[in-house]
Amino acid sequence: QVQVAESGGGLVQPGGSLRLSCAGSGIVFRLYGMGWYRQAPGKQRELVAAITNGGITNYADAVKGRFTISRDNAKNRIYLQMNSLKPEDTAVYYCAAENMRTDYWGQGTQVTVSS
Protein backbone atom coordinates (compact mmCIF):
# COMPACT_ATOMS: atom_id res chain seq x y z
CA GLN A 1 0.00 0.00 0.00
CA VAL A 2 1.42 3.33 -1.07
CA GLN A 3 1.01 6.17 1.38
CA VAL A 4 2.18 9.75 1.06
CA ALA A 5 1.57 11.86 4.13
CA GLU A 6 2.16 15.57 4.70
CA SER A 7 2.61 17.20 8.08
CA GLY A 8 3.70 20.51 9.54
CA GLY A 9 0.93 22.82 8.48
CA GLY A 10 -0.71 25.28 10.80
CA LEU A 11 -1.52 28.89 11.51
CA VAL A 12 1.28 31.41 11.21
CA GLN A 13 1.47 35.19 11.12
CA PRO A 14 2.63 37.03 8.02
CA GLY A 15 6.40 37.02 7.86
CA GLY A 16 6.60 33.78 9.78
CA SER A 17 7.95 30.40 8.77
CA LEU A 18 6.77 26.82 8.56
CA ARG A 19 8.44 23.62 7.52
CA LEU A 20 6.30 21.01 5.83
CA SER A 21 7.32 17.38 5.75
CA CYS A 22 6.20 14.56 3.50
CA ALA A 23 6.78 10.93 4.42
CA GLY A 24 6.34 7.94 2.18
CA SER A 25 5.60 4.32 2.84
CA GLY A 26 5.29 1.58 0.26
CA ILE A 27 7.07 3.92 -2.13
CA VAL A 28 10.72 4.83 -2.61
CA PHE A 29 10.85 8.59 -3.04
CA ARG A 30 14.34 8.54 -4.53
CA LEU A 31 12.85 6.89 -7.62
CA TYR A 32 10.42 9.75 -8.17
CA GLY A 33 10.35 13.37 -8.93
CA MET A 34 8.71 15.06 -5.99
CA GLY A 35 6.60 18.15 -5.80
CA TRP A 36 4.70 20.39 -3.45
CA TYR A 37 1.40 21.73 -4.73
CA ARG A 38 -1.15 23.96 -3.12
CA GLN A 39 -4.80 24.73 -3.58
CA ALA A 40 -6.46 27.80 -2.14
CA PRO A 41 -10.24 28.07 -1.74
CA GLY A 42 -11.89 28.71 -5.09
CA LYS A 43 -8.65 28.30 -7.01
CA GLN A 44 -7.03 25.55 -9.02
CA ARG A 45 -4.23 23.47 -7.65
CA GLU A 46 -0.84 24.89 -8.55
CA LEU A 47 2.71 23.65 -8.42
CA VAL A 48 4.70 25.38 -5.71
CA ALA A 49 8.04 23.62 -5.91
CA ALA A 50 9.47 20.51 -7.49
CA ILE A 51 12.63 18.50 -7.14
CA THR A 52 13.77 15.82 -9.55
CA ASN A 53 15.27 12.55 -8.47
CA GLY A 54 18.57 14.14 -9.47
CA GLY A 55 18.06 17.09 -7.13
CA ILE A 56 17.15 19.79 -9.66
CA THR A 57 14.63 22.23 -8.22
CA ASN A 58 12.02 24.53 -9.70
CA TYR A 59 9.76 27.04 -8.00
CA ALA A 60 6.67 28.99 -8.78
CA ASP A 61 7.45 32.66 -9.27
CA ALA A 62 5.28 33.55 -6.30
CA VAL A 63 7.49 31.65 -3.87
CA LYS A 64 10.97 32.08 -5.33
CA GLY A 65 13.41 33.27 -2.73
CA ARG A 66 11.07 32.37 0.11
CA PHE A 67 10.47 28.62 -0.17
CA THR A 68 12.99 25.80 -0.40
CA ILE A 69 12.22 22.23 -1.39
CA SER A 70 14.60 19.51 -0.32
CA ARG A 71 14.73 15.77 -0.11
CA ASP A 72 16.28 13.31 2.29
CA ASN A 73 16.34 10.03 0.43
CA ALA A 74 17.77 8.14 3.40
CA LYS A 75 14.67 9.07 5.40
CA ASN A 76 12.35 8.77 2.40
CA ARG A 77 11.10 12.29 3.04
CA ILE A 78 10.84 15.61 1.33
CA TYR A 79 10.45 19.02 2.91
CA LEU A 80 9.23 22.47 2.08
CA GLN A 81 10.78 25.25 4.12
CA MET A 82 8.52 28.28 3.87
CA ASN A 83 9.86 31.63 5.02
CA SER A 84 8.48 35.16 4.85
CA LEU A 85 4.99 33.78 4.57
CA LYS A 86 2.25 35.94 3.10
CA PRO A 87 -1.52 35.71 3.44
CA GLU A 88 -1.71 34.66 -0.20
CA ASP A 89 0.26 31.55 0.69
CA THR A 90 -2.79 30.28 2.55
CA ALA A 91 -3.81 26.97 1.01
CA VAL A 92 -3.91 23.24 1.45
CA TYR A 93 -0.46 21.98 0.56
CA TYR A 94 -0.05 18.60 -1.10
CA CYS A 95 2.95 16.37 -1.59
CA ALA A 96 3.17 14.36 -4.79
CA ALA A 97 5.47 11.66 -6.10
CA GLU A 98 5.59 11.44 -9.88
CA ASN A 99 7.25 9.28 -12.49
CA MET A 100 6.59 8.35 -16.09
CA ARG A 101 4.00 5.74 -15.17
CA THR A 102 2.06 7.06 -12.23
CA ASP A 103 1.75 9.60 -9.46
CA TYR A 104 0.80 9.49 -5.80
CA TRP A 105 -0.65 12.22 -3.66
CA GLY A 106 -0.87 12.94 0.01
CA GLN A 107 -3.99 14.05 1.82
CA GLY A 108 -2.83 17.63 2.21
CA THR A 109 -1.97 19.85 5.13
CA GLN A 110 -3.53 23.23 5.79
CA VAL A 111 -1.35 26.32 5.91
CA THR A 112 -3.02 29.51 7.05
CA VAL A 113 -1.16 32.81 7.09
CA SER A 114 -3.08 35.43 9.01
CA SER A 115 -2.48 38.11 11.58
List keywords for this structure.
mainly beta; 115 residues
How would you describe what is shown here?
The chain is mainly β. It is 0% helix and 52% strand. The protein has no helices and eleven strands. The protein has strands at residues 3-7, 10-12, 18-25, 33-39, 46-51, 57-59, 67-72, 77-82, 91-98, 103-105, 109-113. Strands 2, 4, 5, 6, 9, 10 and 11 form a seven-stranded mixed sheet that branches.
The total count of strands amounts to 11
**Poorly predicted ranges:** none
Average pLDDT, to the nearest integer?
A: 97
What general outline do the C-alpha atoms trace? globular
**What amount of the residues lies in strands?**
over 45%
Number of contiguous helices = 0
Rg, alpha carbons: 13 Å
> How does the major sheet shape up?
7 strands, mixed
Helix/strand order, N-terminal first: EEEEEEEEEEE
Helix content: under 10%
Coarse structural class? mainly beta
Task: Tell me the span between the first and last alpha carbons.
Answer: 40 Å
What's the multimeric state? single chain
